[in-house]
Amino acid sequence: MADVKKIATRESYGNALKEFADAYPDLVVLDADLAAATKTGIFQKAYPDRHIDCGIAECNMMGIAAGLATTGKIPFVSSFAMFASGRAYEQVRNSVGYPKLNVKIGATHAGISVGEDGATHQCCEDLALMRTIPGMVVMNPSDDVEAKAAVKAALDHEGPVYIRFGRLAVPVINDKPDYKFELGKGVVLREGKDVTLFATGLEVSETLDAAEKLAKDGIDAKVVNIHTIKPLDEELVIASAKETGKVVTIEEHSVIGGLGSAVCDCLSANAPTKVLKIGVNDVYGESGPATELIKKYGLDSEGIYTKVKEFMA
Amino acid sequence: MDTLALKKTANEVRKGIVTAVHSAKSGHPGGSLSAADILTYLYFEEMNIDPEDPKKADRDRFVLSKGHIAPGFYSTLANRGFFPVEDLTTLRHTGSYLQGHPDMKHIPGVDMSSGSLGQGISAAVGMALSAKIDNASYRVYTLLGDGELQEGQVWEASMFAGAKNLDNLVVIVDNNGLQIDGKIDDVCSPYPIADKFKAFNFNVIEIDAHDFEQIASAFKKARETKGMPTAVIAKSTKGKGVSFMENQASWHGTAPNDEQYAQAMADLEKTGESLK
Predict the structure, then answer these.
(1) Does A24 share its domain with A139?
(2) Is residue A204 part of a domain?
(3) Do B113 and A95 touch (CB under 8 A)?
């Protein structure tokens, strides 16, 4: 896999904002002193008049975005996932969600792959928090291609959207001529009959690798990329569960409230199925290089392979 | 400006407040009454708005950051013609569009949903910023409670507004001195309020919230001030106009019973008579 191109989705985010700026003149970008890290700096350099640095005050930034949206602007509010979804949660709920304002939240540095900064900055709860807000669209793209597509989909969707991006460079897996992004639709990346592996974000490529390992052991796994956590592609989730009988969810997020919970919510009501949730097991992260942490927390292809194997035994 | 007419209108707004809160059997009369004159001036004199076209693009904007005084806001909007005054009695009733706190999705004339203290001012700052980006001439007004100044977000927003020279923004503080738990200086003093806003690069004007000449002069000065936002610190009387509610923290969030309602309306009728 050494020759696979790797790009961090935060980089894709910055590039996408710049790419779509001319086509969407109402697009403005807000940041809270992290433009270099969230990569909105790429947009800022090209469109300085449409980039507003709010300083280190995320709650106010979210409110400013709400105000801008009432006047017809399409604000992309950027910060680390921890602050965008955590610190400013109530502003997102009351100032953005309740009035259904057209605010897009671009949250970078999600999950334990933040790496060395450690637990205070490793947000593994954002998908859970954002899912609870009525009307909020929640996306978690898996690579560069999908991250750009998610930004475009957010621009074309009227209403609040949360998009999760990562700090770690991840393999580009969607650069295929027939790639198509549809908001709310899962993508079947590998057909299989024994178990369905629903993965999201950077776990999609890890899961594809795990599926190849499982195949060698005679386990034929279907792999589905869920880039939109809300609204969930319930039709695909139910059909896949009925088809394979067993389900595994894989996410770089707490096992509480994220993709795993969304899938279980759906299946418990429509097609009760045994589900294994692979994610961050209700613990805080810690400092260390991102790839080492992903391995340590069992979220690399090897960890996924081992857990699925046990689950299938 | 016809001061007598404004006084009469403000008195009608006050009748609407006590009527709405009485009908709801809950709500916030004290702060609604303290802000009634300023709300009246904004909607009947100061702001470029049109009840027939509540969303017209070039309108001045208003954000009620102290969203709990929705009765005062709604009564002002109703008296200005945004919706029927009769609807005020549906306040807080199940199925009514007049929600307990302002709801921009369903109430004509409401520019921003609000109610969680500290958040409205940020939205107002965003609106003012948008006008600057577009070189639009509309102005933005936001009304805060003095207790609300205890919210840290107020100062995040003020720092931004001052730093970005948003001279199209007017922050009004309804300084009635009381909050739910008592006097603001006993609970957690926000004083000195004027000095705080000055430190954040605001043009600060201190007025009597019940004096229309002073209100008019403050907003005129705000319009003439360039390069910095204006803060109008309006010293007010909580419960103003209803004798037994004046200066009583207990009337912050309590509805009058039938007897108290009758007395409140009698007070306001008497005031109305004196303005003839």
Answers:
(1) yes
(2) yes
(3) yes
Question: Do residue B127 and residue A28 have CB atoms under 8 angstroms apart?
Answer: no
Parent domain of B79:
3-274
Q: What is the CATH number of the domain that holds A39?
A: 3.40.50.970
- Taking CB atoms and an 8 Å cut-off, how many pairs form between chains A and B? 102
A84-100 confidence digits (pLDDT tens): 999 999 999 999 999 99
Q: Residues B121, B122, B123, CA angle at the centre, nearest 5°? A: 90
Residue B18 confidence (pLDDT): 98
CATH number at residue A241: 3.40.50.920
Taking the Cβ of residue A282 and every Cβ of chain B, the question of whether any pair is shorter than 8 Å is answered with: no
Helices (H) and strands (E) in chain B, counts: 9, 7
The answer to whether A138 and A162 are in contact (CB under 8 A) is: yes
Structural domains in chain B (count): 1
Partners of B63 in the β-ladder? B142
Predicted confidence at residue A135, as pLDDT, reads 98
| pLDDT at B77 exceeding the cut of 60 | yes
Domain span holding position A108 = 6-171
Asked if residue A180 belongs to a domain, the reply is no
Pick from A147, A171, A195: which residue ends a domain?
A171
List, for residues A231-241, the tens digit of each pLDDT value.
999 999 999 99
The distance of A95 to chain B (nearest Cα, Å) reads 7
* A85 belongs to a structural domain: yes
Arithmetic mean of pLDDT over chain B: 98
- pLDDT mean over B125-136: 98
Query: A46 vs chain B: nearest CA distance in angstroms?
Result: 16
CA angle A69, A71, A75 (to 5 degrees): 30
Beta bridge partners of A93: none
Interface test with A, best of B160, B166, B201 (most A CBs within 10 A): B160
Mean pLDDT score, B8-25: 98
Q: What is the pLDDT of residues A207-231, one digit of tens each?
A: 999 999 999 999 999 999 999 999 9
For residue A1, pLDDT over 50 is answered with no
Task: Note whether A58 and A130 are same-domain residues.
Answer: yes
**Distance, first Cα to last Cα, chain B:** 17
A143 and A214 assigned to the same domain: no
Interchain CB distance below 8 Å, A66 and B163: no
Q: For residue B103, which residues of chain A lie inside 8 Å, CB to CB?
A: 98-99
CA distance A114 to A81: 10
Flag whether the pTM goes above 0.95.
yes
The answer to whether residue B141 neighbours chain A at the CB level (below 8 Å) is no
Q: Which of A108, A138, A171 is the last residue of a domain?
A: A171
Do residues B170 and B141 lie in contact, with contact meaning Cβ atoms separated by under 8 Å?
A: yes
- Co-location of A19 and A154 in the same domain: yes
DSSP alpha helix (H) spans, chain B:
3-24, 29-41, 70-80, 119-134, 152-163, 184-188, 193-199, 212-224, 258-274
Asked if B119 and A69 come within 8 Å (Cβ–Cβ), the reply is no
Q: Same structural domain for residues A15 and A132?
A: yes
ipTM here: 0.96
Backbone phi, then psi, for A63, in 5-degree steps?
-65, -40
- Tell whether A59 is covered by a domain: yes
Statement to judge: residues A40 and A119 lie in one domain: yes
The CA distance from B192 to the nearest CA of chain A, in Å, is 23
Total number of domains constituting chain A: 2
User: Minimal CA–CA distance to A202: which of A109, A280, A269, A140?
Assistant: A140
Which CATH number characterizes residue B216's domain?
Answer: 3.40.50.970
> Active-site residue numbers of A?
58
